[in-house]
Amino acid sequence: MTSVLWLRRDLRRRDHPALLAAREAAGDGDLVVAFVVDPRLWDGGGVVRRAWLAANLRALDESLDGSLTLLHGDPRTVVPALAQRVGASSVHVSRETTPAGVRRDEAVREALGEGVEWVETGTPYAVGPGLVTNGSGDPYKVFTPFSRAWREHGWPEPAATPRTLPLRHARNDADATAALDAALSASDLPELPPAGEEAALRRFRRFRDDALSGYDGDRDLPALDATSRMSPYLKLGVVHPRTLLAEVADHSGTGAETFRDELAWREFYADVLWHNPRSAWSDLRPALSGMRYSEPEDAIEAWRRGETGYPVVDAGMRQLLAEGWMHNRVRMITASFLTKDLHVWWPVGARHFLDHLCDGDIASNNHGWQWVAGTGTDASPYFRVFNPVTQGEKFDPSGDYVRRWVPELRHLAGKAAHRPWDHDGGYAKGYPERIVDHAEERQEALDRYAAVRR
Q1: What is d(CA 35, CA 170) in angstroms, rounded to the nearest whole number?
Q2: Which of 203, 182, 369, 378 is nearest to 281 (CA)?
Q3: How do beta strands 30-37 and 69-72 pair?
Q4: How is residue 407 annotated by DSSP?
Q5: What is the DSSP annotation of 195-243?
Q6: How far is Cα 344 from Cα 335, in angstroms, rounded to an integer?
Q7: Which residue from 98, 100, 118 is spatially nearest to 108, judged by alpha carbons?
Q8: pLDDT tens digits, 276-289
Q9: Which pLDDT score is estimated for 35?
Q10: Terminus of the chain with fewer CB atoms < 10 Å: N or C?
Q11: Would you say 221 and 210 are in contact if contact means Cβ atoms under 8 Å apart?
């Protein structure tokens, strides 16, 4: 017997139910582990996302002793062709839950025909989307009751790691290997985290031992290295959230509870997308369907470059371009600036983030943007307009985060970095002046909200 394991968001060996199922199906035969480089996704993914995926595929291939089969093309034709070529009796996957992923998998399953069994085992989540419901069997629309029910539902222990795998390499496509090589050698590539499962676990255990206890307070301070940085690894399934929950199962206190809440947010947004597939790129809540939006191209481009004249906004946008990652508190501040100060519809920012973030997950990213924009799951969004100056002073009180990413302000000490306009010589190093007046644009945002709520 030969079985195929088709990987997508599960690039690991540990805690991998689909891998176990494929191993069992192979019996005394062969197991082919494959990944398909789909040009439709690859070409539109952006430099950072391609490089991060390529690096983790290389790391996984090494952990599989060079046996990862890389294919190139449309999975609807490539996967059935692979199954036929190796004589597979079954194709195994982790169950996909995004709208596009579900459609793709249905097409591949149909293309395989009756001669090859299609087997879905496990998901990228501790609790699969759709499994947490209220007493009436309906999905939760607000995070807090979802998180309580999510904890009460619980999740299994991490799956066992197979001691041996009867791996068979099925020949790489030249186009696939060329795509990975090109992604990893791109000239404008930012510095990425260490790739692979072992690197992810090392990073997490350092966080658990050194920073978890203070996570509740420190996680909002972007100048500190106080977050787990697991989101890039979770994005590709290099580590499973169930593994992380097991790693902190014996830890109590507000830090550990807050960390579990952050994982619950990821699962909540996946659940929201599962029940509302259109919310990937459309407003989840119709209350703002008549909102008047602007398209100030020069201002949007200044936002993308980190040249708005608001220091914490610019620091975040420059961190994004330099690292392919941005601190979560700053993601909220920069998103609020685009949607509330520039009055731009949230998908414009969501697409920019997905292009540049190595952890760009469509459910978390796009629903996070909607949370800020007021079209998402939050029950009282209308008057939440982040002040980019006071937010910077509150969460970067030393100014260290701003000075790290905005060299034009390094001559200003402490909180002065957040208000260069208040200090002689504040603009001496070429920092741009503010492109809008926040107080005026805040009132404009509230006026636009009021107009559609009448």
Answers
A1: 11
A2: 369
A3: parallel
A4: G
A5: PSHHHHHHHHHHHHHHTGGGHHHHTT-TTS--S---HHHHHTTSS-HHH
A6: 10
A7: 118
A8: 999 999 999 888 88
A9: 98
A10: C
A11: no
How is 127-178 classified by DSSP, letter by letter? S-TT--B-TTSPBPSSHHHHHHHHHHH--PPPPPPPS---B------HHHHH
Residues 6+ apart with CB under 8 A from 275: 129, 130, 139
Q: Measured between alpha carbons, how far is 263 from 191 in angstroms, rounded to an integer?
A: 25
133 backbone dihedrals φ, ψ, rounded to 5°: -130, 165
3-state helix, strand, coil in the chain (%, to 5): 55, 5, 40
Average pLDDT value over all residues in the chain: 95
First-to-final CA distance of the chain? 65
Q: Kindly tell me the number of DSSP H helices and DSSP E strands found in the chain.
A: 20, 5
Locate 364 and state its tokens. 């978390």
Beta bridge partners of 69: 34
pLDDT classification of 189: cutoffs 50, 70, 90:
confident
Give the pTM. 0.95
Instruction: Return the SS3 of 369.
Output: helix
Picking from 449, 424, 432, 413, the residue whose alpha carbon sits closest to that of residue 303 is: 432
Return the residue matching tokens 């610019």. Answer: 314
* 64: DSSP letter: T
